[in-house]
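Input record (one chain):
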Amino acid sequence: MNARTEPQLLRAAAEAPHHLSNAHLDALEEETIFILREVAAAFERPALLFSGGKDSLVLLKCAEKAFGAGRIPCPLLMIDTGHNFPEVTDFRDQRAAELQAELIVRSVEDSMARGTVRLAHPGESRNAHQSVTLLEAIEEFRFDALIGGARRDEEKARAKERIFSHRDSFGQWQPKAQRPELWTLFNTRLAPGEHFRVFPISNWTELDVWQYIERERIGLPALYYAHQREVVERRGLLVPVTPLTPPKDGETVQTRTVRFRTVGDITCTCPVASLAATPGEIVIETLAADVSERGATRMDDKTSDASMEKRKKDGYF
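The corresponding structure, as predicted from the sequence alone:
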């Protein structure tokens, strides 16, 4: 039998009945709900990291199923750089209000005012400095577990994470000292001052996320879908033209049809060229992608000084 070409595979995937993909999505959802309930049972002061991005919205949907709408037993926590896309922060506020959830926002700008964050220059990205503000929020509220939407397929440092990722009393991650997680048994023992980062959708992929968004009809900020935007090409990326990211000398501004695969700080998040305007179209596009979403869209992951592993050791998400 002849092997099918990539266009044929994509067409077959597009035409496949949706119920064929439900089994693996059901299994992922069930695992996520189990982990969320484990967190609620094992910790006194958990919080759910919630940015308004697609992964945190998927996680929030699973939390609704785990505990019931309006009954999520922990606050939502957002560490705001002050340079987030307003469409995303507005959507964050809207979802928190709809769920009647407590939303706690702590800002890097407040850390700058306290002197605990100092930028090397005014144009420096604040993204890596979220670590300081996050650790300050953990101390302020005495959180003992932070639930995040990171996935192992995003980036090689995240692939090293356990689902229950231990942090020491300095908020640091020691990749060689992580606890085993055999047979879905989690060691949640903590010493004073320590905490856990918990990643219930660790085993999901970008494709799983989009299939789940399509199946559950999860609303997202419009940035995730195809739209027209002014961009410049820089180091193989499409950099959005904004007051925070103006074009450099010699760069040509183009209006392109793009979408964001991931959203974060404006100063380091780039869109990709795309005509995909629905979750189903993005599923098909994701099947053909050969670069991870962070690799294709994040300027700050391109430099070793700001590598994900270094930032995670310093307390980053």
